[in-house]
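[retry 2/3] KaiC-like domain-containing protein: previous attempt timed out, resubmitting with same input.
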Amino acid sequence: MSAANVVQLPTRVASKAFELEPLLIGAALHLRAKHQVFEVISLVGDEFAGELHRKAWQIARARAERNLEVSAAEVFAAGLRKAWFQGEERQALERLEAANMLDAGAFIRVARDFRNIIEGQRFVQSLEAAVLRVRQRGFDPATEAGWLSGVERSLHAHTAKLEPLTVEQEKFLSKWESNEQSGKLAYLPTGIRVLDEAIGGLPRSLTLIVADAGVGKTAFQDSLLHALLVTNVGIKAALISPEDGTQHVVKRWMARDMGWVLRDVGSRKRNPIEEELSLSVAKSHYPLLERVLGYTQRNITADKLISTLWQAADAGAEAASIDNFNKLNISGLPGEYPERVQRFSDRLQEFSEKSGVAAIMLAHSTDDVTSRKQVSGSAGVQGGKSLGRDARLRLDLYQKDHELRCVIAKANELGEQGTVLQFHRLREAGLIDPEKGFPVDVKGEEAAEQERAADARLARQMALTRKRKKLIAQEKAATEDARAEAEAQASLFDAEKQAAVEKPKSFGMRWATPKSPEDSHDPE
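[retry 2/3] KaiC-like domain-containing protein: success.
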């Protein structure tokens, strides 16, 4: 279709829609349309071009919502009270009511035709805007891909219809058989034993990995990539990393296989033996790294991200990891921030489910995982609840006793929500050992910790009691010692006093008792 034809189309569409407006108003008034009929038709007054038609439909729908009668007389009276009508509108409404030839079924069919015409008009106007945008700014595949995705969602929303579930059963069985024949698994095994035992693998939809900064999201991602590639022979994966680039994958894998700490890889001076070892390790990693498609530009928009993901899917990738949401630019999407996040989340989920690629999004946590009173699949993630609601799988990472753990915060049919897994972390690179790890009995662990804490409190109390008793005994002994010393001093004083009384006359003063008269001798 040429640009000229696109420009001419809205006029014809608008004209056709205007012709149907009187039929709809007349049918609504004559049939005394009820609230459920207006709900099925799903038209609002602003979609009518004629002023009388627009006001009459708005009043009729409002009266139906309140279970009031919808007729020409009642609608006119309501419009008169609103000062929308002057007087001559009554005859026009009565003529439309009297001229109605539609029954209830025909009324709904004409309304649907009217809606399709209106939607067609909007679609053509959107095409005009797209043509003008391309002419003025040039063709940007990422931008146009985002626009087309939005148009597709809108069209699907208006073409959706009720069907018996047997249709879905046939689709499900057909897809199952197709996957069996092609060897494509519904869930992609992660290669991390304890994780696969808990959830069966990654869904071919959106997976969210949430953790606070520094916990180990990127290291977990690098471990997951390696395990995926080793377990699923021949598949490709994509790594879109506007935050840390992609070189950390090379460094961590080398650090693990060389037995070096991560900081020494690429910085420490090697001796000949170490140089030979590093080259040998690098050579062994080449077949795996060749199957990882990397994207490292710092600033990536939502449109560019979705476009890049489709390129990865076309190149054969079955898993794609995005590190992380914090570095994604969604400012170009319409609406306020929460609405932009929701739009992006919808598009990411749509890509994953259409392409069959397991999309993994890393995101920062906004709270402490261990402090939550209950497990939540949507709360506590940067960007709001949209990502959590749309994800099929969500893993919340945290550290305990220098080991990495994850809470399965959301798993749908994959596993049990709230399951906690502990991984074995390798010292050299922070990667996890895919063969080690175990599910954690959190309640049992908490009970054991509470018991240990109670034992520790009891031990402290007993120690304090023993110390208190010891102090009391010491105080008692000191008191007895003081009393004994006081008694000894008193005895010594008494002895000294007695000795002083018994001193001979030659020693100065002495104590003497008076003599009796018989003992005195008068010389005369």
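[retry 2/3] KaiC-like domain-containing protein: The chain has a mean pLDDT of 85.
[retry 2/3] clearing retry counter.
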